[in-house]
Amino acid sequence: MKCVVAHEPQTAEMNHKTFTGFEVSRWSNGRSRQVAEQVAEEEAVALEYNGTTHAVMLASPADLEDFAIGFSLTEGIVTDLSELYDIEIEAREHGISVRLHIAARAFASLKERRRSLVGRTGCGLCGAESLEQVYRVPAAVTSVSRHRPRSLRSGFEQLRAGQILMQNTGATHAAGWLDSQGRLGLIREDVGRHNALDKLIGALTRSRCDFNQGGLLVTSRASYEMVLKAASVGIGFLAAISAPTALAIRLAEETNVTLVGFARDDCFVVYSHPERLHERLVYGAEP
């Protein structure tokens, strides 16, 4: 199924503001002036499964159903939407509660893992109880999508243009879906790069998008967790505007994910599985 373009956050589920105006002093050349500044909101979002809190994340208060679905899939809590029965969102005094009702088998597996995460915008592994829980290797992806190098520049240009929250606040990351024809589809934004990617994966899943027919563009570095989230749902192409980590490259190699970094203008570096690009690039090329 084709993924529709939808740059605006799906805020109908909650009427929370994603940014707020503040009066601030702006200094330049030793002088100050009072101006109105738009500042991104972040709220504590508790993800509860069958009545038990599993994770509390700081996130932008929009697209929370997408976030809950994407997080559930990329963390391996559910394997597909058939195991997720219902989602309820409730505003509380100190944040937002997202209550998910999942299949008994999935909940039993979740309880066995005995994980309680406290997430920050820059941390995707907070709360892991052992080293074995940190390094999780999904099955190798089988995606056959291919991309023309020039579509990356166009895709990132469209992604920048679609970052409404970033344009207002300068404080958020974005993740976008680039189909095999070079068209940018869904975009999701968040103060956390992991959250933005989870929101996008959740939105793509809800729209029944075929993960074999495209790839991910992200406005951040390509960490291990970003590759892990892509591979967990079978997406075989991840391009980042900044650098990858060595662990991310190793995981991309192992899971058959094409990992691209330093994607700026017409230049980028391919770190793993270049066969998904129409024109092979030389490893180690300068960004």
Defining key terms:
alpha/beta; single chain; 287 residues; 2 domains; globular; Ubiquitin-like (UB roll); 27% helix; Cytidine Deaminase, domain 2
Question: Can you give a write-up of this model?
Answer:
27% of the residues lie in helices and 32% in strands. With 287 residues, the protein is of the alpha/beta class. The protein folds into two domains: 43-134, Ubiquitin-like (UB roll), CATH 3.10.20.10; 149-276, 3-Layer(aba) Sandwich (Cytidine Deaminase, domain 2). The protein has a six-stranded mixed β-sheet, with helices on both faces. It has a five-stranded mixed β-sheet with strand order 5-6-3-4-7. β11, α8 (246-255) and β12 form a beta-alpha-beta unit. α1 (64-74) crosses α6 (193-206). The protein is globular and about 55 Å long.
Query: What is the topology, as strand order, of the major beta sheet?
Result: 9-8-10-11-12-13
Secondary structure: number of strands: 13
> What is the level-2 CATH architecture name of the largest domain?
3-Layer(aba) Sandwich
* Structural Rg: 19 Å
| Structural classification | alpha/beta
Number of domains: 2
What is the percent of helical residues?
Answer: 25-40%
pLDDT under 50 segments (min length 5)?
Answer: 4-14, 280-287
Largest sheet: 6 strands, mixed
What is the helix tally?
8
Mean pLDDT: 87
Note the overall shape: globular
Q: And the CATH topology of the largest domain?
A: Cytidine Deaminase, domain 2
List the secondary-structure elements in sequence, H or E: EEEEHEEHEHHHEEHEHEHEE
Our measurement of the CA-to-CA distance between the termini, rounded to an integer number of angstroms, reads 34 Å
The fourth-level CATH homologous superfamily of the largest domain is: Cytidine Deaminase, domain 2
User: Could you tell me the strand content as a percent range?
Assistant: 25-35%
